[in-house]
Specification:
Layout lengths: L13 H9 L10 H5 L3 E6 L5 E8 L5 H17 L9 E8 L8 E7 L5 E8 L2 H13 L6 E4 L2 E5 L4 E2 H7 L8 H18 L9 E7 L4 E7 L23 H10 L2 H21 L1 H11 L7 H15 L10 H15 L22
Antiparallel strand pairs: 1-2, 2-3, 3-4, 4-5, 5-7, 6-7, 8-9, 9-10
């Protein structure tokens, strides 16, 4: 039986908490993760084929359910509409599921509109600094907007819609609706996005394929949905989705339809897009990184090992002097700036400060 390694939870420190409050991520919630944890009954959740999904559907005592379900609807309103309660009377909580094997042991809440039976999901998890940094970097540096909230030791996330990568490989990879070159291009770009900002563990079950019908063909975007392994592991390959065996069918698909020159072109295009996003939000990104470089998000050995591997990969010794994972992320982004000639107009370092509050003046 394979042993599954669980990364430890890193609590959100005051500097990050202040950043999250400044950008309206930290809010008061009517219910916390620990309130959901004391469920009364549970049973396995099966998929349409009758297979165990590894989620448990949980239930609460009858006298607790009205309060819990009303609070869950309020949280959904905060996440989706800034707290507008006008639509709450039309919503009801259809199901609460619990996953015990995930790093943050999430609860998944299914919300249904009673007028049209439209359903939506959101998640309540244990707050983890690694995951918060991953969500925020995804929001700032990728084409995807991430909606999430924090409150103390609770993290609330919206559902990332799409076809899970492993199911896409099984059921869609050779579907004639999928344009070969568009999928291969997106694979290269996703690989580059993960590596530049050190988002790890992007095996097929941790990302989804967002498929959008276009004028004549289907557009595909790969979206990460698991951010627990933001800059924690010590191995360079951990941050390159191409090296996971679960992704091998996608990699073979990509190499069969792209030559090296074209792949490098798509890689440079993604780097340019990341730079444009960095220019648009450089003050906010700088504040985030200035907090991140002070945090312990991985054991010291992991930092030094990854620094050595990145220094060897890029042939740049500057990675050897990084003392935290945050410094490695910032150095990776600074390297991108210098490579594309934007060093004079885009800076990711703030002057040293004595207290976290000075970052946000």
């Amino acid at each position: 039986m394979r042993t599954i390694f669980k990364k430890p939870i890193y609590p959100i420190q005051p500097g990050l908490r202040e950043y999250l409050a400044r950008y309206n991520r930290e809010v008061a919630l009517p219910l916390t993760y620990s309130d959901l944890f004391y469920f009364h009954v549970s049973g396995p959740l099966l998929d349409k084929a009758g297979k165990d999904t590894l989620w448990q559907t949980v239930g609460y005592r009858s006298f607790e359910m009205p309060r819990i379900f009303e609070a869950l609807k309020e949280i959904y309103a905060l996440l989706k509409s800034g707290g507008d309660r006008s639509a709450l009377e039309h919503l009801y909580v259809d199901r609460v599921d619990y996953c015990s094997f995930g790093n943050t042991q999430p609860f998944r809440i299914r919300i249904v509109n009673s007028y049209n039976d439209n359903q939506d999901y959101f998640y309540i998890k244990r707050a983890d600094a690694s995951r918060a940094y991953g969500l925020e970097l995804e929001h700032l540096l990728s084409p995807n907007r991430m909606h999430y909230l924090t409150c103390g030791n609770t993290l609330v996330e919206e559902h990332v819609a799409g076809i899970p990568g492993d199911l896409f490989i099984k059921d869609w990879l050779h579907n004639p609706q999928v344009k070969i070159i568009r999928l291969a291009k997106e694979l290269v770009r996703f690989n580059e996005r993960c590596f530049v900002r050190l988002l790890g563990d992007m095996r097929a079950c941790n990302f989804v394929m967002d498929m959008t019908p276009d004028v004549e063909e289907v557009q595909i975007r790969i979206r990460a949905m698991d951010f627990d392994q933001q800059c924690h592991n010590e191995r360079k390959k951990f941050y390159l989705p191409q090296f996971f065996k679960e992704n091998k069918p996608l990699v073979v698909y990509c190499t069969d339809h792209l030559n090296v020159q074209t792949a490098m072109q798509y890689q440079r295009e993604e780097q340019s897009l990341i730079l444009r996003r960095m220019q648009a939000i450089h003050d906010r990104l700088r504040m985030l990184l200035n907090v991140m470089v002070t945090e312990d998000l991985a054991p010291e050995h992991n930092v030094h090992q990854l620094g050595r591997e990145l220094a060897e990969h890029y042939q740049e010794a500057v990675f050897l002097g990084c003392g935290t994972m945050g410094e490695l992320v910032r150095t990776s982004l600074e390297r991108l700036i210098t490579k594309h000639g934007h060093s004079a107009s885009l800076r990711l370092r703030l002057p040293a400060v004595e207290s976290g509050s000075d970052l946000f003046l």
